[in-house]
Amino acid sequence: MRKRLALALIALMSMPLGAARANVVPDPVLEWNAIMVTTLSGHNPFAQARLAAITQLAVFEAVNAVSGDSVSYVGLAAAPPGTSAEAAAVAAAHAVLAFYVPLATPSLDAARVTSLAAIPDGQSEDDGIAIGQAAATAMIAARAADGSSPPQSFAPTSSDPGTWQLTPTCPASGGILFHWRNVTPFGIESNAQFRSSPPPALTSPTYARDYEEVVRVGAADSVERPSDRADVARLYNSLLAVGAWNGVARQLADDQPIGLSEHARVLALLNMAISDGLTSSMETKYHFLVWRPETAVRAGDSDNNPRTVGDADFAPFIPTPCFPSYPSAHASASYAALAILERVWGNGGHSLELSHPAVPGVVAQYTRLRQITDDIDDARVYGGIHFRFDQEAGARQGLRVGQFIFAHSLMPTGQ
């Protein structure tokens, strides 16, 4: 097993993501990014990522129509001279979120009033609101038929060793989010563009090594799982990619601000990468149909690998998601996010905290971005829901997704 980077886990009072930091939000782009994360918190991680990308792209389009700093994503016309970029950002985020989450409209309306109150009344504000609403309308229209609905399920057609089977958490209809492999990506060319290489054979030493690891440290009753690894497994079971990496980005922007226009661009790139990392992972998952550890360990004596000892009573530390194992979606999304943020703020020299109210008393502290992805990898293995090779494949896939998006999307106009 690769050596883990140290993680400080400290006990504090229960707090929402990033609440331990006393920094004041420097601009409405960051303010509404936080509102977006809260508003989307009830959605599944895949829907969260899609809606976060739409929201942040609308904010980018609105701000960019004022600044002209980057190439437009949807071809929005330039705003009138003197337009308030701040008002544009507020109006764009509000309009997208109110459209997709209508039950949140009262709280979104109140936040909009508060944000606009900090901007001087007049033509500049009015023009900003108009361009923000136009950006929201354009992004909503662009994603109206992107394959995110209607939902589809997958019914396994084989019970061969190594092939994904329904786990106890699955609905009777079968594997969930089968249609997500076909959702139109935001920045990459296709969801198969960075498909992972085939997984290791069941009879291979790699499979046996990673099987043994998840049996030893991922079982619900494991006595070899350190308390800090149990904490990260529980933390990242609740703290999903959108919440984690947008929280990280806001902390980085607080500490090293790069300006409203660039904040808007980076947050758009970040959420494009997270969403495309997830759609890519689902395309690979349903292509290879690799079984989960929960199924694999219970059937370990039937996989033709003498090094894998079966355990019919194996249960994972955290619940198994109802779709195939390979590669890890959390890894694909997180490493895609990492690829964006590393290029803007660098990997190290940071002071970051991540927490979630569902895991009270646990705050993860980091000085390097890759410590976060290391913990996410451990979280899924020590949680008993992924093999280590799932995480490694997701990492490779996510990095390629993020690197491609950063190199080809929302390019500065000066380049």
General description of the model:
By secondary structure, the protein is mostly helical. The protein has a domain of 277 residues: Vanadium-containing Chloroperoxidase, domain 2. The protein has 13 helices and three strands. It has a three-stranded antiparallel beta sheet with strand order 1-3-2.
Main sheet: strands, sense, barrel: 3 strands, antiparallel
Report how far apart the termini are.
43 Å
Radius of gyration: 22 Å
The best one-word shape is: elongated
CATH topology of the domain at 8-23 and 148-408: Vanadium-containing Chloroperoxidase, domain 2
Q: Can you identify the CATH class of the domain at 8-23 and 148-408?
A: Mainly Alpha
Structural class computed from helices and strand pairing: mainly alpha
Work out the strand percent.
under 5%
Order of strands in the sheet with most strands: 1-3-2
How many separate helices?
Answer: 13
Helix content: 40-55%
The CATH architecture of the domain at 8-23 and 148-408 comes to Orthogonal Bundle
What does the average pLDDT come to? 94
Secondary-structure element string = EHHHHHHHHHHHEEHH
In brief:
With 415 residues, the chain is mainly α.
Please describe the structure with a list of short key phrases separated by commas or semicolons.
single chain, mainly alpha, Vanadium-containing Chloroperoxidase, domain 2, 13 helices, 3 strands
